[in-house]
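Re: the multi-chain job from yesterday

Posting the exact lines I submitted so nobody has to dig through the queue logs.
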Amino acid sequence: MIKVVQYINQFFANVGGEEMAHIPAEIREGHVGPGLAFQQAFKDEAEIVATIVCGDSYFNENLDKAKAEVLAMVKQYNPDLFIAGPAFNAGRYGVACGTIAAAVKEELGIPSITGMYKENPGADMFKNKVYMVSTKNSAAGMRDAVKKMAPLALKLAKGEKIGSSAEEGYMPNGIRVNFFEKERGSKRAVGMLLKKLAGKEFETEFPMPDFDRVDPNPAVKDITKAKIALVTSGGIVPKGNPDHIESSSASKYGEYDIEGVMDLTEETFETAHGGYDPIYANADSDRVLPVDILRDLEKEGKIGSLYRYYYSTVGNGTAVKSAKAFAAEIGKKLKADGVDAVILTST
Amino acid sequence: MVKEIERAGIPVVHMCTVVPISLTVGANRIVPTIAIPHPLGNPALTHEEEKTLRRGLVERALKALETEVTGQTVFEEK
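And the result, C-alpha cells for all chains:
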C-alpha cells in the first residue's frame, strides 16, 4: 500500500477563512477535506495516512520557517508520495503548495505532485521544479483536478514512466524528451498551415518562450521635487466601495481623489479585498495605502507632492489580463499627468 | 500591474510581503513589508510606533526610487 501525505490550507480543512489564515502547520491523521476525493480515486492502491493543514498567510509570511516545519512533519511519516493542494487560483495557497511540493521532492527525495491554475503565481515559480497539474481556476474544478492528479500521483509513487505534459495533464516543465511522431514533420507542418489558413485552432509544436520583462526606469533624480502617486492591489476604497469593486476576480479599478485627505480612517476608507483578513485594513487603511506618511513627508518637503488621485483594485484571483489592462491605463494617465514615481502596495 | 506602470515609463517600487511573487511578476524595485493583511502596519504596536514603522518602510521605498538599478533589486532593511 502506497503511503500518502497531503498538504492543504485552512480553508479546505474547514478550519476557517481569512480570519484563520494565520494558523501554523498542524497534522491530522488520515484524509481531510479534498483528501476524501483523492482517497476514493486511489481505491485500494494508496492511503492518505496524514494531512498537514496550514494557514496561507502563515506559510507565506514565514516561507523558510514554515517550509522547514512542514518538511519535518512529512519526514515523520516517511510517505511514498506527497500531494500538495490543489490550489486552483488561490495565490498564497499556490505559492505554499509549490514551495512545499518542490521541497519534499528535492530535500526528502519523495515523489511529489501539486496542482493549480496556470495564472496562480505559484505556477510560474514552481512548475519546472515539481510535477504541477493544470487545474481550473476555482474549487468547482476539484473533480477534474482529482481525475488528473490522482493517476499521475500513483504513477510517480510506483516509479512508472511519466508521459508528456500533454498526455498526463501537468504543466510543461521545460524538459524535452525525444520521441517519434506518427506522422513525418512535413505532413504535420502542412496540416498546421491548412488549419491556420482556414482560421481554425492549431497547436504549435514549438511554443515561443514568454520572457515578458520590463527594464527598470532610471531613478528619480530629486525625490524632494517628485510628484508621487499611490497604487494598490490591496483593495483600499472609500467607505462603501462606491465603484463596487469585486472582492475577488476584479473586473475594474477605482480612481479616488484624496485632495485634502491627511489620514485614512475607519470612518472614511476600507478594503474591498476578499483575499485577506480585512480587520486591520478596515480599522486603518494606511496600513495598506500609506497616505498619512506621504502627507507628512509632503509637509516636511521630503517629497515634492502626493498625486491627487490614487488607484486601487483587488488582486485576488484577478485575471492577469485584467490586471495588465488596468495598470496600462493607470500608467498612461499618470504619465500624462506628470507623475514622477509610483509606490505600488500589495497585500 | 507593477510591470505595466514601469512600461509606461514611470519608475515604480513594489511594496509587498511575499517577495518571491513580486520577483516572479517582474517588479524591479522591491521593498519587503510586514504581513499580508497589514503590509505597512502592525496592529500589535501603538499608533505612534506603527507610524514610525510605516515611515521607515515608505522612506526605504523612496530610497529605492532614487537608486539606479539594472535588474530586479530587493531593498532589505539595513
